[in-house]
Amino acid sequence: MKWFFCWCQDTDFRSDHNWKDLIRASVESAQKNTKLEPYFIYDGDRSDFTEEMSEKGVNVIFHRLSFTNKIIEHSPNDKVYQSIARGAFLRFDIPIISDFSDEFVLYSDADVMFLEDPKFIGYNPNFVAAAPQFDRGRRYDLNSGVMLLNLKTFKLIHDKLIEFTLKNLHIGLDQEILREFVGTDYLLLPDTYNWKPYWGINQDASIIHWHGPKPETINNLLNNSIEKTNGIWQDLFEKDKNSYAYYLEYYKKLIKNYKKSERNIQKIPRINLVKGKFATQSSVSEWAAHTTPEADAVGALDGVIDGQQGFHTDIEESPWWMVDLGDIFGISEIRIFNRMDIPGVAERASRLAIEIGLEQDNFVEVYRREEQEPFGGVDGHPLVFKPTIPIPGRYARIRLLNRNYLHLDQVEVYGDHLPYGEKYRPGASSPFEGVVDQIKNGILTGWARQISCPEPAHLILFVDHKRVSCFDANIWRPDLHAAGIGTGQHGFSVDIAEFLERPQSIVEVFVESRTLALQNSGMTIASLSIL
After folding, report:
1. pTM of the entire structure?
2. Does the N-terminal or the C-terminal CB of the chain have fewer CB atoms within 10 Å?
């Protein structure tokens, strides 16, 4: 069974939670005691922690809450509420980020421990099955920390649930919304599937939920490092200190075993997407190994890194080499190994650009290298491009920025299929459209819209692959209105003067979970600027 849990990186400030260790303990217990397949829905930036999770075999899904704009509008000046709400409501987006055919999936908060595999035999909810919160066996006290979800039904009612949520944000977070939405019309799970330490020690419990005080606080209370915690947490702790101490020891053991195993993590082998794929290049040199662009270009895909030329174009203005991945992937890394067999030849590839396209004749520059110092290859120092988030594309092209020969040893491309890969296919109806227009007097302008939704598109700005700002495209533009583009109120204008120190800096603007890029995203500040 697939198991989903969520976390918003912006709640990392909650030191009394220590979310990363809570997640580590949850993953360790699930992998040790269950057959669950973990899926981590994550609102945040790619980091060492997400890499750690991936190496542990966790499927990390980078996703921004679909109604983030409404959360901000509801409480525009409360950043703490916004971050907590974005994480809490992420579970509501499970149907739109999964195309699985599973009938049932498990959701849990990130602060649980699995003591045994939760079988859920005989539990087939029409929508949701959940256990109570404070009062054992009481249906009215639904707790959303552990839920068995009917995925098919969840997909069917998702829009209705979100509509209800947006009308009732004043009620509270996900749990309060769900209580109002389902009432008592849900399947009640036994307490053992969502056991709270304040209920005492239960050897039959399958899932322990740190509802209330978290291990960090419990440890401090038991060691007298702090006298007491906040009211409700203190009251729960006082109900059964022995039980909290008992489960804390199990938690500590999980963390210890997890950290001990970090040295022995067997990394999931990454697949080089270019192997066996079609490639071509702009021309063929008289020194090339083959006489046609297609035959010569595949020399960079054979996986043999030896410093020799894998292909060789003729001398020309901006020669290029391209690979067709055969399908659309979220490209997360490109590694370029330079030719190093003859002194002086490596310098020829010093100034280059990497371009990615959904179609063969439509590329966006995602990386530009202007340095004269050559990069390496077989010596262990290839050129490595790792975007902050995966970039959707089928074609990857390497192009010199000057007149010269282009010859490289090997090219590797890594990535994964996108959850919504179909929407990027040529001819597909994309949920978004938009363009980065220009930078003038330090102001970045453009437009973007959600095609089938009146809500403004939420955009995220990256400079040199670092997230620097987020904003909405909600400015009225008469040219858009005259062109029949939505309502016309889809423009944006952002002051980025502080980032204009380096003309070669790359400007990227993304929408919808930082996966889909606007047209012209990935160009340099210099290429976008109008003086």
Report:
1. 0.55
2. C
